[in-house]
Amino acid sequence: MLPGIVTLTLVAYASSGCLANHYRIDRTELERLTTLPPASRGAGVRVVQALGSNREPGLYHRPPPPPPSPSPLPQADTRVSVEVDVDIAGPFLRGTSRRSREMIRTAPTRTRSGHVSGWGGDIGNVGPSSGGGGNNDAMVVVAVLLIAVALFAVAGLAVSEGLRFEGEVAVPPYQPIHLENQAGLERVVSLWDLQLGDLDPAVSATMIEGEAQPGPAYLVRAPLDRRGATFKVDIGGLSTVLDDWTITGVASNIQLGYFFHQRYGLLANLSLGLASDPFDKPLARHSLGIEAQGFPVDFGRLHLGAYLGGGRLLSTDANDNFVTGPSFGAGALVEVALTTRLALMVRGGWTFAGISGHNWFRTGTVTAGLAIY
């Protein structure tokens, strides 16, 4: 689980070019710097590493490159077609027919014997059969695809957003500062010569690595800052009881929301649950809802909190028909700050859900993942 997340992050890092070699300085920091003696201004400058294309040192002092000359010969049209067939849903579709896995047509209704009530409430008769339900199999396939896409997305954001430097750097006092006004016009002044009057038309300020030697030296990275938009993805295991059987499977949460305070936020939560019944048939139990999170306790990089949420369960019954019901969940959160905008998180708790006219059931989950702030 965790090795997989780390691998995705490394792959995204190896293929990413999103982190640039220039750094933004906000107006408050610029005003603070103008109050310091010029010789000491470079001892500690609060910056945020910018996202986007890298800019070469001295870019604004170079003429634009000449346009490329047209090629005298037509270019050959070379096309390569590659097909890759990866069965990522295989582990969750054991016991289903190939026809149902490919979702070409809906498999016939399962024939079951022996009455079972439990994870899905009173879900009907359970017993061995020759195939799985089309709707249930579709829910499994969609969930697997969503989890895969979310893991790649959070790994990419961990590189582009989570790993960028935000904190104090040391630069020479003659470091050039690029000031850009609202009209997009830019002027360059050295940190030594920066005056408060230079900031009146400035909307943004940037310094580019390599325009002064030595370059920026990272001093102190700013602590974890949750304020603002957040994206979280985790994956792990679930456990529940289906009559006399203990059912285990895969659980994942995909969350998008906003922290209006350093410690408290509100997130939309897509909870995905995948497992197999005692006869190796796929089971899918998903829910969509709202979750409140709080982190009232922290010990340096270690942050302790809790979550409470509610939503709507989506599942299928014994006849492969879609059914819904309310769901509520609560549990504990642990985050370890990696950077100012990136944290490793672990969560565990219980979800209580039910379908109208059936019994309530509970599911325990333990998951781990990444949080991007």
SSE topology sketch:
Blueprint: H1 2-14, E1 19-25, H2 27-34, E2 45-51, H3 98-101, E3 115-118, E4 121-125, H4 134-162, E5 166-170, E6 176-181, E7 186-190, E8 202-208, E9 217-221, E10 228-242, E11 245-259, E12 264-276, E13 282-299, E14 302-316, E15 322-337, E16 342-354, E17 360-372
Antiparallel strand pairs: 1-2, 1-8, 2-5, 3-4, 5-9, 6-7, 6-8, 10-11, 10-17, 11-12, 12-13, 13-14, 14-15, 15-16, 16-17
Beta-strand residue percentage: over 45%
Element pattern in H and E: HEHEHEEHEEEEEEEEEEEEE
Biggest sheet strand order reads 10-11-12-13-14-15-16-17
Low-confidence stretches: 1-17, 57-66, 75-132
Q: What overall geometry do the principal axes of the alpha carbons give? A: elongated
Structural write-up:
The chain has 373 residues and is mostly beta strands. It has an eight-stranded antiparallel beta barrel with strand order 10-11-12-13-14-15-16-17. It has a seven-stranded antiparallel beta sheet with strand order 7-6-8-1-2-5-9. Strands 3-4 form a two-stranded antiparallel sheet. A hairpin with a 4-residue loop joins strand 11 and strand 12. The N terminus is likely disordered.
